[in-house]
Amino acid sequence: MATAAITAEIKDITGVTTADVDFIVSGQKFAIANVPKELLKWASSDTSTSDGGDSSPTTITMPTGSRVDNIISVRRNNFEAEEVSIRDRAFIANTSSLKLATSTFPKYYKASANTIVVKPDPTDSELAIAEYIDFTKIDDNCDLRNVVINYACFKEFVKLMMVSARQGDFSADSSTMGTEHWIRTEEDSEMLMARVQTIQAQLGERTHFGQMSQQHYNLALSEIKSYIENHPKTLDMAMAMK
User: What's the pTM?
Assistant: First the structure.
């Protein structure tokens, strides 16, 4: 995952000295959550035997950071597996059932703990592999990089907005020189007004960062909309070719 350019742009836009890595990851996941999987096949990865899908364990556990709802397809020994409903789970391993999964017509279902169960059970020679959208591939070199940049900037501006110095201190606490303290104890009206003006400036900064946050969230949504609408294969075509 190459995100050096994304990180640099986030810092340039927001003025932060260190771009929050978690915000970048959130932006990548935001992108794959909002773009149809059919348009993200270029960002797919396959599970490996370290994730399961062989004789031990037979169950596939999705890699860290990925979810079963990001699956594009599942195959066993290069035969594509069919996903079954909850009510059919008991039948696909039942030898007396017409719905029994076979080596040439395997089946699977999504189980708890972010796992996938494939039938017949995978073996070392007949592996089960899940193809999924890999959020780490939404990086510096892809068309969705601006989604990540704008989403991360949205988060950074929210963080800046919530800095305690921008909340305004209206307390009567003498140690923090809150506004209420000045009202009660300060006879010099000019000093009091100076304090009020300082707080107004702080709140003004907060409002500004809030507006910037909303702007970049809207930009992230606009980038996603543009990607879907202007993709070389339209969504209808992608669905028809599935």
Answer: 0.79
